[in-house]
């Protein structure tokens, strides 16, 4: 008998009902809305279900989920479903014609996305290997007890790239919205300005400019995932002349404890999560372990963190 958790059955129920109703599998974003979780959680669950051979997907192909479990084992989906997959096709269109229309639409969306990425690349500036100044920051996750923090060193980078440095240093997955708050001014991605009256675009702002403006004791707050409400205190500890050109930046030189899982519910949800996974008798112990996988709250590898930071920055600058 297959060992399928209740959560996995809910996923299968929605995927099966959606596919039957709309004639095409759902997107991960639609599954996320139905399950009331964030897309990264859906991605992780689908990977687990693939490993257990409950489903299969075509690599790099959207909406390609195929259920391998007997439909008789899947409970009925009783809630409302809404599809975001919309395109025009004649009522008399054959399946081959519908497939062709869908391929054209997907191709068009990929073209739009590639153009957006191209424009972002133009706006970004490549990190300078000859930069003569190193900035040392301490990043502390607010309301984390015991404290979760990182001490990092970076060259002079754009604030938009510093976002990626923080993400990689802490261990987040860059799956949610973010913002910087500096001296009472909120700085965000320019694409979000229309929805954030009073905020400023952070594109083009460098760390060196912020230090000149606010001094060597620069402090900022970095907010991530406005739903879970992760707030970080980012404090400039030292400005150092770069004497060792062989040292690669950015890097993590100190820190404590692992980053919480994404979508765990903020600081208080994380506390409940730790309580549950550390107590085998807890009613949510098995469910949360199934959701998150193995988690060690004390685990932090500085070398791995540095490698992740450097790979992330190379990707951002060279994408």
Characterization of this structure:
39% of the residues lie in helices and 17% in strands. The chain has 319 residues and is of the alpha+beta class. It is globular and about 65 Å long. About 3% of the residues have low confidence.
Number of helices: 9
Report how far apart the termini are. 46 Å
Shape: globular
Quantity of strands, as a count: 10
Reading the helices and strands in chain order gives HHHEEHEEHEEEHEEEHHH
Q: Helices and strands: which structural class?
A: alpha+beta
User: What's the helical proportion of residues?
Assistant: 25-40%
The strand line-up of the biggest sheet is 7-6-5-8-9-3-4-10
- Rounded to an integer in angstroms, the radius of gyration calculated over CA atoms is 23 Å
Characterize the biggest β-sheet: 8 strands, mixed
User: Which spans have pLDDT < 50 for at least 5 consecutive residues?
Assistant: 122-130
Q: How much of the sequence is in beta strands?
A: 15-25%
Offer a few descriptive terms.
39% helix, globular, alpha+beta, 10 strands, 319 residues, two-stranded antiparallel ribbon, eight-stranded mixed sheet, single chain
Helix and strand topology:
Blueprint: H1 6-22, H2 28-35, H3 39-51, E1 55-56, E2 66-67, H4 95-123, E3 133-141, E4 149-154, H5 159-170, E5 178-182, E6 185-188, E7 200-201, H6 207-214, E8 219-224, E9 230-241, E10 251-256, H7 266-277, H8 285-292, H9 302-318
Parallel strand pairs: 6-7
Antiparallel strand pairs: 1-2, 3-4, 3-9, 4-10, 5-6, 5-8, 8-9
Helix pairs in contact: 2-3, 5-9
């Amino acid at each position: 008998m297959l060992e399928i958790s209740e959560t996995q059955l809910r996923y299968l129920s929605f995927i099966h009902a959606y596919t039957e109703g709309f004639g095409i599998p759902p997107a991960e974003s639609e599954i996320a809305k139905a399950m009331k979780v964030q897309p990264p959680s859906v991605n992780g669950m689908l990977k687990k279900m693939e490993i257990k051979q409950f489903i299969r997907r075509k690599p790099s192909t959207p909406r390609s989920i195929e259920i391998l479990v007997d439909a008789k084992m899947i409970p009925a989906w009783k809630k409302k479903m809404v599809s975001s997959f919309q395109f025009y096709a004649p009522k008399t269109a054959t399946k081959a014609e519908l497939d062709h229309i869908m391929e054209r639409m997907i191709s068009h969306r990929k073209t739009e996305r590639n153009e957006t990425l191209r424009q972002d690349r133009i706006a970004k500036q490549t990190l300078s290997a000859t930069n003569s100044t190193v900035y040392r920051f301490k990043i502390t996750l607010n309301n984390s007890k015991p404290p979760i923090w990182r001490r990092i060193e970076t060259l002079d980078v754009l604030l938009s790239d510093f976002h990626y440095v923080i993400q990689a240093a802490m261990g987040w997955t860059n799956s949610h919205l973010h913002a910087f708050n500096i001296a009472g001014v909120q700085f965000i991605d320019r694409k979000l300005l229309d929805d954030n009256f009073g905020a400023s675009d952070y594109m083009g702002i460098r760390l060196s400019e912020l230090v000149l403006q606010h001094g060597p004791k620069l402090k900022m707050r970095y907010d991530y995932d406005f739903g879970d409400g992760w707030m970080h205190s980012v404090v400039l500890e030292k400005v150092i002349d770069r004497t060792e050109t062989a040292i690669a930046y950015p890097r993590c030189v100190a820190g404590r404890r692992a980053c919480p899982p994404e979508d765990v519910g903020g600081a208080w949800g994380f506390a409940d999560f730790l309580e549950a996974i550390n107590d085998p008798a807890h009613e949510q112990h098995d469910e949360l372990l199934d959701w998150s996988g193995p988690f060690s709250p004390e685990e932090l590898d500085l070398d791995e963190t540095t490698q992740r930071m450097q790979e992330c920055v190379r990707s951002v600058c060279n994408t």
